[in-house]
Design a protein that fits this description.
Layout: H1 3-12, E1 20-23, H2 24-27, E2 28-32, E3 41-42, E4 49-53, E5 58-59, E6 62-63, E7 69-72, E8 87-90, E9 102-104, E10 111-113, E11 117-122, H3 127-133, H4 137-147, H5 157-161, E12 164-167, H6 170-209, E13 216-218, E14 239-243, E15 248-249, E16 254-255, E17 259-262, E18 270-273, E19 279-282, E20 291-293, E21 301-304, E22 307-310, H7 316-324, H8 326-334, H9 346-350, E23 353-355, H10 359-398
Parallel strand pairs: 4-10, 14-21
Antiparallel strand pairs: 1-12, 2-11, 3-7, 4-7, 5-6, 8-9, 8-11, 13-23, 14-17, 15-16, 18-21, 19-20, 19-22
């Protein structure tokens, strides 16, 4: 019997059925985010400003510190400064898939958060235990149910407070938190291994094709042309697999999920029909790093209009890694337009010039990528197994 199994049996032996059911509002304090105007924003952090987090700073159940806002401290009340153990939740978004995503602040930092977010501050519950509830399938299912049919994609304060979960004793909370944290640690290590493989691929790309060794051509010359409109290919009742920004894991640059719809019920953004080996580049900030190659071999796959889709006529692996380079992303950030919704145009991508090495070298590089992908596949399978265990434990504890 594994260590996880023994720990789980010990916890189950405590008669989980005896755990009391509590409301989130009884064990956590709910705090609203900071409202501010453009005049309250600074270009950089200084003695008059503090870091403000937004929904885009919540990714994969963790906080990232990209695309930060620096807001005047005068706009922030004492209670709106975050504390270690706080749960930051996206409370309002243009996409229902983003509403409810959450992350826990695991360290002491001077931070606040915007008005489209809320913070739940643990009062009478172990913070290390309760954070896992907000990553659980039970929580996501309930949030999806609450947002069904809503015209505005947000979570009401009362809905958050009325969420319920089974609550074990304080000592059991600590044991469960420790067990789940072990799973998370393994998952994070496996993800870091995948990131290292990706860095190895990028390094090989620079070694083979960097320093302007070969003439440059525009990306438009390396692709077949505009991908077809999904509206022309599907009937209203056809079942489709829809890919949007949240479907792309920008740590491993892969599509990690999709949402199934009847075509007529899919979001209006579901406009582009894609096929295997198409490359998807997000055109909206702060998601320009969301770049993926489609390995799904489904004829009914549809992508959001928020992607520029490239259909390579060159070697797909070569073009894919070319647009993964940091220079490409930084150059795209530099040409974004729009004050409220900064974005790049498809033409910005298509007119971008990259090296055009001989086909034989592209194929050699693709062979190297494919070898690395075999190693990545083994790690990915192990990661999926650990993630399945983690989800199973959360379903058991929080359902």
């Amino acid at each position: 019997m594994s260590k996880y199994s023994k720990d789980n049996e010990n916890i189950k032996g405590k008669r989980m059925s005896d755990w009391k059911t509590v409301k989130i509002g009884d064990i956590c304090e709910q705090i609203n985010g900071v409202s501010y105007k453009p005049a309250d924003v600074y270009d950089s952090l200084n003695e008059n400003a503090t870091v403000l987090l937004r929904a885009n700073n919540i990714f994969e159940d963790k906080l990232n510190y990209d695309e930060l806002v620096f807001v005047d401290k005068k706009r922030v009340s004492d209670i709106q400064y975050m504390k270690k153990g706080d749960i930051l939740i996206c409370a309002s978004s243009g996409s229902k898939h983003l509403v409810g995503k959450a992350a826990c602040l695991s360290e002491d930092k001077e931070l606040t958060f915007g008005a489209f977010c809320k913070v739940l501050r643990p009062k009478t519950v172990n913070p290390e235990f309760i954070k896992h509830y907000f990553f659980s399938p039970s929580y996501r299912t309930e949030i999806s149910r609450l947002s069904e049919g809503a015209n505005i994609n947000n979570i009401k304060a009362a809905d958050l407070d009325n969420l319920t979960l089974p609550l074990p004793t304080e000592s059991e909370q600590k044991k469960i938190a420790k067990q789940l944290d072990k799973c998370i640690k393994i998952i994070n290590n496996q993800k870091r291994s995948l990131e290292k493989y990706d860095l190895l691929i990028k390094s090989r790309f620079i070694e083979m094709f960097g320093d302007n060794k070969y003439p440059k051509i525009s990306i438009s010359e390396m692709i077949e042309g505009k991908v077809p409109s999904a509206k022309k290919l599907f009937n209203k009742t056809d079942e489709i697999k829809y890919i949007d920004i949240s479907s792309v894991d920008n740590k491993i640059n892969e599509i990690v999920g999709y949402t199934e719809y009847i075509f007529e019920e899919a979001p209006s953004r579901a406009q582009q029909h894609i096929r295997k080996n198409d490359i998807l580049i997000s055109t909206v900030r702060p998601n320009l790093k969301n770049i993926a190659i489609n390995r799904l071999d489904y004829k009914e796959t549809v992508a959001s209009s928020g992607f520029c889709v490239l259909r390579p006529k060159c070697v797909p692996e070569y073009l894919f890694v070319a647009v993964l380079q940091d220079k490409f992303t930084s150059d795209m950030v530099a040409v974004t337009t729009g004050a409220n919704y900064p974005a790049i145009k498809d033409s910005d991508v298509l007119n971008y010039e990259i090296s055009n090495p001989p086909l034989k070298l592209q194929q050699q590089f693709a062979a190297f990528v494919q070898q690395i992908d075999k190693s990545k596949f083994a790690v990915q399978k192990s990661l999926e197994k650990t993630e399945t265990l983690y989800k199973s434990l959360m379903q058991q504890y929080f359902a």
